[in-house]
Each structure stands twice: as structure tokens, then as C-alpha cells.
Write a structure and sequence with these properties.
The chain is an alpha/beta fold. The chain is 52% helix and 13% strand.
């Protein structure tokens, strides 16, 4: 069952209306990609996000009403939140809160298939969560598999910083091994006069569609 999502966003006075609109459409699309259901959106025009709660007091009260009426499971901010902003929002609303960066990492975690890709995403998630552990208690205590808890989020990492640092070092060592192996493969390809082509693009940019057209295949 899809999680019910409330998206919150600050439009700074310097933000162009069209650019902000595209940004909002993008985070809605990302939320759906993460198998969430966007129930409502709250935006606020400010010079800068509120340093404590991202949005102002009036908007926080509006959030409370929507959470109660729509049974919201998750709040997603269209910016990167500080640890204190995330913690304050969660404590104030009683609902798990993640930001744009965490949402994107979650999508990457759900889609990574290669060993190297999984390690890279896991490393990015650990490095992202480490300075924010104090604000992650509620988010990481949610049911396993929820948006923002895929990957290392399911192991209650906030309880042991030393464990995280050890894991980061371990992943880096394993990644270095993969890099070394890939370099060996690259040398062999050069000797054999073969090469690889990579298709790089943002989530939902159409990489698989392009690949299928070029190769006449049916890749997902």
C-alpha cells in the first residue's frame, strides 16, 4: 500500500516562478517513483526557510490539519533539511520527515542492481545520515521498506555512530577492490581493442527507453 505523502516547499523571493513549478513537478514525480501517493502540497514564499521548522508557524498549523484529515504517513521537503529542522518538524507533527536528497537516495537504493551500485548508494546514505542522526529517530523507527528507510535506514543507525564509521570504512575498502578489478578489466579491453558505452541521466530521464531504441531490446 502506497504511503500517503505531504510535500512541503519554500519558494524563496529570488526563485523564478517557472523554475519553482518545475521543481515541484519533479519532486511529485520522484515521490511517485518511490511508490508514494502525493495527497497534498504546502508551499510558502519566504526570503529563506525558517531555521527551526523550515516553514513558518502558520504553515505548520496547516500541516497539522492535513495530517489529521488525510492520515499522512510521510512529509517530504523540497529542499535539504538540517538535522534540527528535520527533528523539530518530526517532533512538532508526529510524522516522519525526509528531504529531497533522502528521497533521491531512497530511489537509488531501490533500483541499484550491481554490487558496486549497491555499495555506492549505501555509502552515500551512511554519509548523508551520519550528521543527521539526532533527527532521524522517528524516520528510522517506521516500518521497514517505507520511503526513506530503504538501505541502511532499516538498521536504526542512530544508536551507534562508531558502527556507522566502521561500516563506511568497510564499504570504502570494498569499493576500492571493485575499482581495482574494473581497472584490470579496462586494461584487458584495451589490449583486446574493445570498449563500453555508458548511458548516463537523471531518474526518469529516459535512459532505458533510449537503450531499448538503440539496441532493439526490452530492458527495464
Amino acid at each position: 500500500m502506497a504511503e500517503k505523502i505531504l510535500i512541503i516547499a519554500v519558494q524563496r523571493q529570488t526563485d523564478d516562478d517557472l523554475h519553482f513549478h518545475y521543481s515541484m513537478e519533479e519532486i511529485k514525480s520522484l515521490s511517485k517513483t518511490a511508490r508514494g501517493e502525493v495527497v497534498d502540497v504546502i508551499t510558502q514564499k519566504r526570503n529563506q526557510p525558517h531555521p527551526a521548522t523550515y516553514l513558518g508557524k502558520g504553515k505548520i498549523e496547516e500541516i497539522d490539519l492535513i495530517i489529521e484529515s488525510e492520515e499522512i504517513d510521510l512529509i517530504i521537503a523540497n529542499d535539504e533539511l538540517s538535522a534540527s529542522q528535520m527533528r523539530n518538524l518530526q517532533n512538532r507533527t508526529g510524522v516522519s520527515v525526509i528531504d529531497r536528497s533522502q528521497l533521491i537516495l531512497d530511489i537509488f537504493a531501490s533500483r541499484a542492481t550491481s554490487n558496486e551500485g549497491k555499495l555506492q548508494v549505501e555509502l552515500a546514505q551512511y554519509q548523508y545520515l551520519l550528521p543527521r542522526l539526532h533527527g532521524q529517530g522517528l524516520a528510522l523507527s517506521r516500518l521497514a521498506g517505507g520511503i526513506g528507510t530503504r538501505g541502511p535506514g532499516e538498521t536504526k543507525l542512530e544508536s551507534d555512530r562508531r558502527h556507522i564509521n566502521r561500516r563506511i570504512n568497510e564499504i570504502k575498502r570494498r569499493l576500492q577492490t571493485v575499482v581495482n578489478q574494473r581497472e584490470q578489466y579496462r586494461k584487458r579491453r584495451r589490449l583486446n581493442h574493445t570498449f563500453n558505452i555508458a548511458i548516463v541521466g537523471y531518474t526518469n530521464a529516459g535512459k532505458s527507453t533510449l537503450f531499448n531504441r538503440l539496441t532493439d531490446s526490452d530492458s527495464f
